[in-house]
Amino acid sequence: MTQLVSGQSISAVAAMIGDVARANILFALMGGKALTATELSHHAGVSAPTTSGHLNKLLDGQLITVEKQGRHRYYRLASPAVAEALEGLSNLAASGPGRHRPTGPKDMAMRQARTCYDHMAGQLAVAMTDAFTSRGLIIVEDRSGLITEEGQRVFADFGIGLDPKPRSARPLCRTCLDWSERRMHLGGRLGAALLAQSLQRRWVRPVKESRALSITRDGERGFHDVFGIPRDRLTPAG
Amino acid sequence: MTQLVSGQSISAVAAMIGDVARANILFALMGGKALTATELSHHAGVSAPTTSGHLNKLLDGQLITVEKQGRHRYYRLASPAVAEALEGLSNLAASGPGRHRPTGPKDMAMRQARTCYDHMAGQLAVAMTDAFTSRGLIIVEDRSGLITEEGQRVFADFGIGLDPKPRSARPLCRTCLDWSERRMHLGGRLGAALLAQSLQRRWVRPVKESRALSITRDGERGFHDVFGIPRDRLTPAG
DNA sequence: GCAATGCTTCGGCCAGGACCGAAGTAATCC
DNA sequence: GGATTACTTCGGTCCTGGCCGAAGCATTGC
Prior knowledge:
The structure is a homodimer. Chain A contains 10 helices and 11 strands. By secondary structure, the first copy, chain A, is of the alpha+beta class. The first copy, chain A, folds into 2 domains: 7-81, Arc Repressor Mutant, subunit A (Orthogonal Bundle), CATH 1.10.10; 108-233, no CATH class. In chain A, the strands form 5 sheets. A 3-stranded antiparallel beta sheet of chain A has the order 1-3-2. In chain A, helix 2 crosses helix 3 (37-44). Chain A binds a DNA duplex through helix 4.
């Protein structure tokens, strides 16, 4: 009964994530930023030595990667596949027993816009998805998404060159369930490129010590003028 | 820092799957068939009492459901979301360290065709995906899939009525990485309907005590005539 | 150079939980 | 009814693995 993927190997990966401290570490890294061991120990809620042990296990399991930089060590999720596996577990956790009340994050800034691994989430991201759909730039069906020819043109104008088939296992356009909005938002390579481009144009700015993003004046104008997002969806009250 | 989905709740779910015996149980249930406690104890490789404990935990965690029938208890995965979470973990496990050699399953029958939760996998499923794509019935891009108008017509003729938007969280058409073929095959509601219809028409038949499916004479003719699948991809040698 | 910071390894403690055998309940067969 | 099969609950054992404090390397700053 030897198989490429067995219960054995699945359980090994799941056990990695099945510890509260390690799950907190991975969850913190879902923000997409590289974090140091000390920062992660705060997120994990355990001592530095314990965190070090956990990080070694996660490295062994190839769920994260390190980069040494001076006396710091910066950790990241190893691949989008890790983020997707975590997302799958989140979907289960969200619908499972002992669910928290669906009030979403208390932090209004987080609720408005934040990073989700390498793309955007929150009200802004959902509004973008809506705007793209209604303008016929993308076609979203359930969890899948396709970019139309019109969309390719508009995104290219925006500075996003999307090679249709650069042999990557990464979906060009997929959606991701938003835990505060309970709606889909854009992920995949398109989502990642949109975040990168928005940061470069300074339409959004990362908020210190948080996954939240703040929308700048330029962003308010840009998201409205270029993508046709209603202004009332660009303000915290939105 | 209370959030809808926290590291805490993710780890609870992951810990469920993070035990070898439980992972084997879930993996066995990925075949889509309901199995009894005794059958599952064999898959898990532990005693009946231990299995009983595991099953209770999985029930508590809402990863599986039971149905009493006489002196048997039939267990199933609770939802497609569970299967998708397992799939996400499988993808990680397959690319992780200690990977098994990529020879795929030894069992040729399994390799040719088998169930993957509620849809088909193996050579047959990959061949179908290829045929549908080249005939323009579906458009597959990475992990997403869309059904064309032509596709809707053909599938409807085949007896698959696909309500475009029956408010279900389940994707209509998505793809799933095949661990024996290393290619994508069809999942989602379309994949499930194709399996159901193929079983009903007796184009495939479940193999006893296995996830494998055998292609019948009718199936060879049907898959070729209706969907244009080359005959050489319908034989074990394929 | 010395002190401070970031992170790791070591040693030892402790608890959760996975496991089994034996015994108990429930449904079926004859 | 009695024997068999299916499954569970109970009680007790054992071991994995998460945790910390103390001490040990690196790197940086002064």
